Amino acid sequence: HLPEHTLNIKNILYNTSSHNPPVIGYCHWFDIKDVVVSAMHALNYNLMGILEMKRCYLNTQAQKDLILEEAGKILSIWNCKKLDEILTVQHPGIKKEDIVEEPLKETEKKIVFNHRPATYKDFDNFIKTMDELWKQRQDFKVWIPLLETSNRPYINVDKYDKKDYYNELRKCRVGYSPKQEYGGWSVATTDGIMNGTPYIMYDAPYYKELNPTADFFKTNEEAIKLLNLYLDDHYQRNEQAIIGLKHLRENLIYQNEMQQMLDYFDKIVSEEKCITDRSKRFKEMIEIIKREGTVSKCKLTEWMNNDRPYGIALNPYRRALLKHPNIYDSNDVEPHYIWKT
Q1: Residue 241: per-residue pLDDT
Q2: How many angstroms from the chain centroid is the CA of residue 101?
Q3: Beta pairing partners, 177
Q4: 200 is in which domain, residue-wise?
Q5: How far apart are CA 251 and CA 288, in angstroms?
Q6: CA of residue 64 relative to chain centroid, distance
Q7: How far apart (Å, rounded) are the C-alpha atoms in residues 283 and 277?
Q8: Which SUPFAM superfamilies does the record match to this protein (predicted)?
Q9: Which of 14, 156, 304, 318 has a CA-to-CA distance to 71 between 20 and 30 Å?
Q10: So what's the pLDDT on residue 37?
């Protein structure tokens, strides 16, 4: 949520230790003026931090397009181009073992809205649509687990732990994915699909990124028509559930999604400059660690800066130290370089 901290973190690291590591970030919420509740937004502040990153992951192409559109009103053309290169879409994956083998054949006439009941999730319009559907038929229920209290005869707001929540999702006939102001990833929707419940979705790019095989609607009338179909036609419902499960297995497995990110991490690390073992200073550092057995990163940095002009870069030395067969670092509150005995 706070990519702007990147600039301050890099500033502190460099000015206190001459350490300037590459920064890779992730953000799924940006302060865009049409989305934030408060009158003041801080997208310009977000952007300052993102521009200091090598890469910043976000969830959907729709999000990226929205940010670039807003950034065009704030940044120069050159910085907008740089931002475009930094922002990288990375769809959140699903654990393979969390995807059910097949949907339940017999389900309840229950529509699930497991999103936040908030304005940016078009909740009021969803209720309006359900009221219209209720006028046509009174043989269904609507489950809204994140709503505090029910204010309609057809709504239930039962709460469950994670395991039972998934079990209840499986029993639902169909899920509803609303229009969003923000265009982010919908975990609520993937929760349902991976448990064998098909979702009808608002016709927007951010949902088509998630599941292009779904049934989409643009108007309340189209949504009601689809809901009636799913409530009455078991075959349609189960076929769409099977198609949705197949799409998740083939396109959104967590391990596959994360591997792309890990490959990039390895690439960035491998591209970092590394001092050669011919360096006199590097040899001195090795001797200090060997003699002391363990030396804090702070002490080693102080020694470097006290003995040489201010500003000597630590990164190339750190890379070389970690490649040394007898040296490793500890991941403590205060990191140390340790000599293997």
Answers
A1: 97
A2: 26
A3: 201
A4: 96-254
A5: 51
A6: 12
A7: 7
A8: UDP-Glycosyltransferase/glycogen phosphorylase
A9: 14
A10: 64
> Is residue 71 within 8 Å of 86, Cβ to Cβ?
no
Q: CA-CA distance, 197 to 167, in Å (whole number)?
A: 11
Distance CA 231, CA 186 (A): 23
For residues 153 and 160, what is the distance between their CA atoms, to the nearest angstrom? 20
Report the number of distinct structural domains present in the chain.
Answer: 3
Measured between its terminal Cα atoms, the distance across the chain in Å is 43
Which candidate, 188, 214, 219, places its Cα nearest to that of 201?
Answer: 214
Domain end among 90, 122, 139: 90
The CA distances from residue 234 to 177, 197, 241, in Å, are: 20, 12, 10
Looking at 209, 239, 254, which one is the last position of a domain? 254
Helices marked H in 112-253: 123-136, 162-171, 187-194, 205-210, 220-232, 234-251
* pLDDT, position 160: 96
Rounded Cα distance between 19 and 92, Å, is: 31
**SS3 per-residue string spanning 63-108:** HHHHHHHHHCCCCCHHHHHHHHHHEEECCCCECHHHCCCCCCCCCE
CA 207 to chain centre: 15
264 is a domain residue: no
User: Does any domain span residue 107?
Assistant: yes
Residues 100 and 248 placed together within one structural domain of the fold: yes
Q: Going residue by residue through the chain, which has 341 residues, state the pLDDT in tens, using 9 for 90 and above.
A: 789 999 999 988 887 767 788 999 999 888 877 666 666 678 888 999 999 999 999 999 989 999 999 999 999 999 999 999 999 999 888 999 999 999 998 999 999 999 999 988 999 999 999 999 999 999 999 999 999 999 999 999 999 999 999 999 999 999 999 999 877 889 999 999 999 999 999 999 999 999 999 999 999 999 999 999 999 999 999 999 999 999 999 999 988 878 888 999 999 988 888 888 888 888 989 999 999 999 988 888 777 766 554 456 778 888 899 889 999 998 888 889 999 97
> What region, left, alpha or beta, does residue 18 occupy, with left being phi > 0 and alpha being psi -120 to 50 degrees?
left
pLDDT on residue 318: 85
Burial class of 120 by CB neighbour count within 10 A (0 to 12, 13 to 18, 19+): middle
Same domain flag for 245 and 110: yes
9 and 26 share a domain? yes
Tokens of 309: 């002009």
Residue that is written with structure tokens 């029993």 in the block = 171
